[in-house]
Predict the 3D structure of the following.
Amino acid sequence: MITPEKFDACRVWPRLMSLFVGYMWVEFNNYFFSIPINEHSEFALVQYAAITGVFIGFCKFYMDTGKRLNAD
């Protein structure tokens, strides 16, 4: 039987969130790179940098946190 501690240690919710954030980042990349380069504004580049930074920050936070399952 899985205990709440073991379920929490599996980090199900953060994994689902990372899938969602990754999907949104891929969709934003598809949108951003579909715009012709001569129509890009500086604001679009700032938006791209901000969204990419959030994605990278989330990945770093996710990799640096978490609990290990104890071998009971």
